[in-house]
Amino acid sequence: MNDLRLKEKREKLGLTQVELAQIFGVSSNTIQNWEGGAKIPKTKIDFVKEKIDEVFNRYRYDENSLSYKRVVKEESVSLQSGVPYYDVDFTASFLEVQNNQSIKPNSYIDHPFFKGCDYVVRASGQSMAKVISHGDAIGLIKLNNWIEFFPFGEIYAIVTNDGFRMIKVITKGETDNTYTLISKPTDNKKDEFPPQQINKESIMQIFKVQASSHLF
User: How far apart are CA 128 and CA 193, in angstroms?
Assistant: First the structure.
């Protein structure tokens, strides 16, 4: 979407691609692609336009330097508002993020889709393709009391004691000691992902998948 003149506006504001990515809640590679002519998803166009206007409202034009200056320096702190986004695959690298507090987010996502989430990471694989595509950003909420209760029939991200990580719909198990894990693949892959039983004791942690979006 070159009609937004994203690069021109970013350079007027004196922002780097990394800083603009933090404002939009996307990766710096996404900004680079957009500036290079890649299409901005239709669901993101209005959001991007609003954010650009919002940023310009926080700057003033300096006639002496012929450039835009921040009205208040401290406002740069707002770049780190929102939900922390880690550009990692839940099934591959999420435990490192959860267990190592020194790992910094790639950016912060300030978007209504992910309001109230603890983390935003990426999904992978084809087992949930009807509702979550490979590469989608997913917002996770940690369930601290999942052992006592959580509603069946919703989508969850599961971490097992053996280090397996998966995203499934969880329903009542065949016994009191198990849950049933349901996949949502496309129809042509349905036979590859049958329902599975998982022992409750083998689960380390459950996260509710609050939202997913083609944001990146």
Answer: 9
